[in-house]
Amino acid sequence: MRTKFVEVIDDFLDKSYFDFIVNTVMCEDDFPWYYSDDSTYPDPETYSINGDVRPTQGFSHVLVRNDKTTCRAGDLLYPVALKIKSYLGAKEVIRLRADLTLQNPNGAVHGPHVDYPGEFHYSSILYLNETDGNTIIFNERDTGTQVNGSNISNFTVKETIQPKPNRLVVFDGRYIHSGCSPIEYKCRKLLNSNYR
């Protein structure tokens, strides 16, 4: 079991498969996106970093849950999760989720979080489009409960990763992390997945 790591891999998927994902499976006319007021948290509580609250609405779609696909797009994208699972030496795909964050011309850092509080897991992000909106991984780690607005003002940055098409980030999912809304581009698309 690997712990306390962050790794960035460029050109993770074969170009032909990556192009198929972007241009066919997740083409803008056909892919079903589901709206969320907050791209990080499911509850209505407002979170901020150092008191700065900005809109972080977006869209998502859960494609795989507990090693089972949830839809036709999940069937086509499950091999991505299996390749990452194999790379990590993990035993199970917990979830594969498509994520689309909308442009915010003023910028917005989304709520710091861990995907599965209180349990060991790996997390990954595969960027799909040319965009801005960095991923921030903090030095602080999971304490067993979800991060809340009262304990994030003193977080320190471990690593900041710039999006790039076909760039994969894998890390110990117990690191608290966050994404940012794009400023220059109209959206930020990625596949987020978790493993144990």
Provide a short characterization of the protein structure.
With 196 residues, the chain is an alpha+beta fold.
Helix-and-strand structural type: alpha+beta
Can you tell me the overall shape? globular
Q: Which whole number gives the mean pLDDT? A: 89
Order of helices and strands: EHEEEHEEEEEEEE
- Beta-strand content bin: 25-35%
Radius of gyration: 16 Å
Number of strands: 12
The biggest beta sheet is recorded as:
8 strands, antiparallel
Q: Give me the number of helical elements.
A: 2
Oligomer: single chain
Low-confidence stretches: 41-51
Helix and strand topology:
Layout: E1 6-9, H1 15-25, E2 34-36, E3 58-65, E4 68-69, H2 72-88, E5 93-102, E6 108-109, E7 122-127, E8 135-141, E9 157-161, E10 168-172, E11 175-181, E12 187-195
Antiparallel strand pairs: 1-10, 2-3, 3-4, 3-5, 5-12, 6-11, 7-10, 7-12, 8-9, 8-11
Question: What do you see in this structure?
Answer:
The chain has 196 residues and is α+β, with helices and mostly antiparallel strands. It has two helices and twelve strands, in the order βαβββαββββββββ. The chain has helices at residues 15-25, 72-88; strands at residues 6-9, 34-36, 58-65, 68-69, 93-102, 108-109, 122-127, 135-141, 157-161, 168-172, 175-181, 187-195. Strands 1, 2, 3, 4, 5, 7, 10 and 12 form an eight-stranded antiparallel β-sheet that branches. It has a four-stranded antiparallel β-sheet with strand order 6-11-8-9, with no helix packed on it. Strand 3 (58-65) and strand 4 form a beta hairpin. It is globular and about 40 Å long. The model is unreliable at 41-51 (pLDDT under 50).
